[in-house]
Amino acid sequence: MNIKNFLILMLIFSISSVKAQKKQDIEAIKQMCGCFEIDFKFSETFQYSNDSNYSKSKNYNSKALEYAKLIKDEKGHISIQHLLVMGDYVIKHWRQDWIYQNKDLLKYDGNNNWKYISKAKKDVKGQWTQKVYQVDDSPRYEGSATWLHIDDKSYWENSSYAPLPRREYTKRNDYNIMIRGNRHEITKDGWVHDQDNYKVVKDSKNNSEIIIAAEKGLNKYTRVDDSRCNEAISWWSENKTKWLLIRDKWNSIYSQKDNISLRRSVDSKPLFSFLFDENVIKKEEIGLIIDTFVID
Q1: Which residues of 170-184 are buried (b: 16+ CB within 10 A; e: fewer)?
Q2: Mean pLDDT (the chain, rounded)
Q3: Helices 283-293 and 230-254: crossing angle, nearest 10°?
Q4: How much is the pLDDT for 13?
Q5: What sign does the dihedral 190-196-202-206 (CA atoms) show?
Q6: Which residues contact 194 (CB under 8 A, 6 or more apart)?
């Protein structure tokens, strides 16, 4: 075999390998869809604060039933909407988008500010970006990494800057950024969100960061029959058009590829309080509401 034919064969093998890897990645991501019983557990593991009055966060443990609906699956872009099921009541929860070889990211910088970052194509080769959104589809945190499939395991790991979690948002003001060490692993029963987090005080003026505590989190998603989530399935069917309009508005903002700063409230109300209003359904009104929260 001459060199030319050898190189052609190697190229074909490489392309085939990339396609096979991408197919495995997509199958793993889609395993996070369905109806799940969830067990949330968080505990501070180490305290680094020099403040003798520092008070450790209490251990946190809660359970929930959640439906994760696949709402987009095209050209390396997968979107999964999470819906909390509380008896007959359904609450729109967070959303996660997975984008293949994505170069555009938002990095949380504290105080409801996100900095736009453009990565080089070579730095995201073969990677998937997980973009996590708030309940109102505003940004939360994002990170890019490679899915690994080895020793009968499929998992994705990344570290991202994020706002305070809701379980601490109203309880603590001694740190302003959480560095989330995320590991998503697919299991035979569902999937696990394993976290090694740091609570950080960031001073933007001095560009300094001080870690005051470390935290371990383990969120276990156990798959159950979809019939347990029928209320969420019906709710999404009735409300998906409205939330498509909301996503379209946000996408027009994200497409500007610029920093984003948001007001925490308008007229003493957070954004989700406006958008969760059942009477807010028109495109123009949705756009105006979101615009009032975006700081130019």
Answers
A1: eebeebbbbbbbbeb
A2: 94
A3: 60
A4: 42
A5: negative
A6: 182, 183, 184, 185, 217, 218, 219
Q: Of the given ranges (6-10, 21-25, 61-65), which has the lowest mean pLDDT?
A: 6-10
SS3 22: helix
Per the DSSP assignment, residues forming a β-bridge with 80 are 70, 96
Give the domain extent around 108: 3-83+94-226
What the block records as the tokens of 41 is: 């557990």
240 half-sphere exposure, CB direction, 13 A CA radius = 13
Rounded to two decimals, the pTM is 0.93
The amino acid occupying position 107 is K
Q: Is residue 272 part of a domain?
A: no
What are the backbone angles phi and psi of residue 37, rounded to the nearest 5°? -85, 130
Residue 288 domain-assigned? no
CATH number where 150 lies? 2.40.128
DSSP secondary structure code for residue 163 in this structure: P
pLDDT at position 52, please? 81
DSSP H/E element including 18: helix 3-30
Place of tokens 């509401």: 289
Residue whose token pair is 């557990």: 41
Q: Return d(Cα 282, Cα 134) in angstroms, integer.
A: 21
- The residue type found at 242 is K
Which of helix, strand or coil describes residue 172?
Answer: coil
How many domains does the chain divide into?
1
Assigned domain for 180 exists: yes
| Sequence-distant (≥ 6) Cβ neighbours of residue 78 within 8 angstroms | 26, 29, 30, 70, 72, 97, 98, 99
Give the start-end residues of each E strand in the chain: 34-47, 60-74, 77-86, 89-100, 104-108, 113-118, 128-133, 139-145, 148-150, 153-162, 177-187, 190-203, 208-224, 260-261
**Does residue 246 form part of some domain?**
no
